[in-house]
Write a structure and sequence with these properties.
The chain is an alpha/beta fold. It has 24 helices and 28 strands. The strands form five sheets. The protein has an eight-stranded mixed beta sheet with strand order 2-1-8-6-5-7-4-3. It has an eight-stranded parallel β-barrel with strand order 17-18-20-23-24-25-27-28, surrounded by four helices. Strands 10-11-14-12-13 form a five-stranded mixed beta sheet. The chain is globular, with a radius of gyration of 28 Å.
Length: 819
Amino acid sequence: MRKRSDRRRRWPLVITLTAALLASIVTAPGTVAAPPEEPAGPRVVAADGTVQTIDAINPSSRTAGMFALYTPDFGPSTKTNKFGGEAVLRETGNPGSYEVLDVCTVFTNCSNPGDNAIPEDGVVLSASPGGTPDVRTFLRDHVRAGELITLDDLTVRTVTETIDATDPTVETHPAGVDPASGKCFPGCRGGEQLIVYTTASGRPTTETNDFGYEVTVIDGRVTARGGNNREIPADGLVISGHGGRGAWLSSNAVLGAKVAVDGSTVTVTIDESTYMYGAEQALARAEQSMTAAAESCLIVDQQGAATAAAESRSLLNQAAEASAAGNVDGSVTLAEQSRESAELAWYRTAESRPVEGRGMWVRPTETTPAQIETTLDQLDAAGVNMVFLETVFQGYTIYPSAVATEYGIAPQRPEMAGFDPLQVWIDEAHARGIELHPWVHTFFVGAQSVNENGGVGPVLEAHPEWAAVEREDVGKTGPQPSSQEPGYYFVDPAMPEPREYVKSVFTEILTKYEVDGLHLDYIRYPVSQPWETASFSYSDYARDAFASEHGTDPYTLTPDDALWETWNAWREEKVTSFVAEVRDMQLEVAPEIQMSAAVFPDPSDGLAKKFQNWADWADRGYVDVLTGMSFGTSAASVARDTELMRESVGDENLLYTATYGPFRGSTPDVLIEQTQAVRDAGSDGAALFAYNQLSAAQATALEEGVFRAEARTPHSDLVTAAREAGQWTSGNVSSATGTCIPEKTAKKLEKELAGADRFLEEGKTDQAVKAYGKAAEIVRGSSEIQLNFAARLIRDLAMYQRWTEQADAEHGGKGGPKR
């Protein structure tokens, strides 16, 4: 088991900070807030009187031209890039009044135009590039350190936005049509659009893809929020936004908000009743979940949930009393506290398993050991047991690399020079019982957006001859970026020299540092469709090598030629053979560590566009763990991706489905729902992308919910994992006897579980596999076991059987040696 440290309260306490912020931005206690004659929505009034509209509060991502407000609820810092501008503000004690502590934009000579710390007693104003007019200039021209500025209508507010279309079709909404196909984009929703869907459309759901945000409106109130392709209610509508319009919707159409659609205008009103409604709904969900957990004998924190629910009910009653007394600000604050207590109760009704992978991708921005320790404290508090630390990215290593120096390449990321961050990360992660897996970019070596003067990055600066060449760039001088992954530079996967360099860097990591794994990313060609322009790689080396083997220059081939599939297979083999080489190296120099890879969950998508055949890698035993990158915004979407991968690899590989809740700014409940969904779909754990976007509220949901209990990783020791998890299940059966499972059936089941445990202890993995199979048969053969309890038993027994079969194969059993 991982070492237990003091995990509590490493993240800011969201409830206290939320209440404090609300109290500071509404009218004084005991007074009634008079609504403005013309509701203006959230805005900033500078000391010189200039007004700037706030587009979003705590947005999931700061889209082009957005002026956003970040509160302590968002997390420790804004996590924005360096191309915008930000002002750090602190409360003054007067309602709505803030002192400017610091302001910095990309236009001025300062070091912090992005990713500023959010004061516990303040907020951060943040402006992104790309708008017209440029919102960054408001901060540059009208905000000065030491001045007092005003924030208005942040809590009780009315905002309006233009609707691009209602129930769009090809005929009525050309802006939602893909010009290449003449057909609608998913849902006929185009980029940066706000769409309304009603039952008049004739469609049961919005049919949108996973790249937006939607809310359900019934009887003029927002009743549900979250992902896409939502069901359209018979007595309501769905509003769907993409890009910045989705961020606007997420920020303003909160649960319980009043919504009115009038022609092409939608008006959203957040008032006192909004907060009361949100609290009531959150408490009802928590109470329902507590009842359901008890009825299905789910092992949860029932006492903690009951305590939080009782606190929520008390606060809600106090909010109602304040409202009746005309105390709007007091009612709002109490209702928000009630909602957050109810959410805490709901988190505590989530299942938290003792054995599963809980990964988190981390791009290190820390430049001191103390900063690294703080980050790891927060990850530990959230219940993470493995960190994928970005160690080689954009062509740089985070540690001082002798291999890079030997090849004439910059030896370390400039901002990290002077110490070895990787060693500190390893030492501090292990001190907390967290595994450290270097996350390494393989063939992707540079990005224009982060390199000085838009350059190609250190690898191709030193060796431009290694560049992968896109079909449309044949004949051009020097490395060119991908057209489909704009600004990204890749080395040619077929070329021996860059392959040897990359492998040497990986070897250096595994021989110099005591890491727990190696996590391969960008282990593929760049996106190679459409083939006419974007196909990779037509370097001189690749063309000559293919021609020498098959007698034809691949540049002359089209999909109609007989050799086209041979050309595709040739490129696929270049990726797979490199994975094999890295695997051979790893087994030679660090056989105890785990090989993992971030892959696209749809095998056909990975093969057709990027020549990435991860199912073949699993079959050949080249990887121990696959993290399918599931970009979906709903639980159903990530479950489908997990099922697809499990079907492809069978029982021969561990899966830790990668969900993107933090990156997408999903609500905390979506994080929990997605984690539970991938478990039920056959994943052996879940990994979240990424820490750099993880909010304090999301971290609290993990800590109090799905990652509440300490957990070991399955891959670290498959036999021990199966034994510990099996003993946990046996304990569940014992406690559920007489309630969710008949006593006679429970005894039979416990006998098989005890037998499996004994066989594992004796090294008889093949017999343990059979025992788990018999246990599953007992569950399937009984109609008296509570249905949800039975479903969890079948799910978990299949997982333990899978782990045991893999252990049997590794030990030379009937499945043969895995490695």
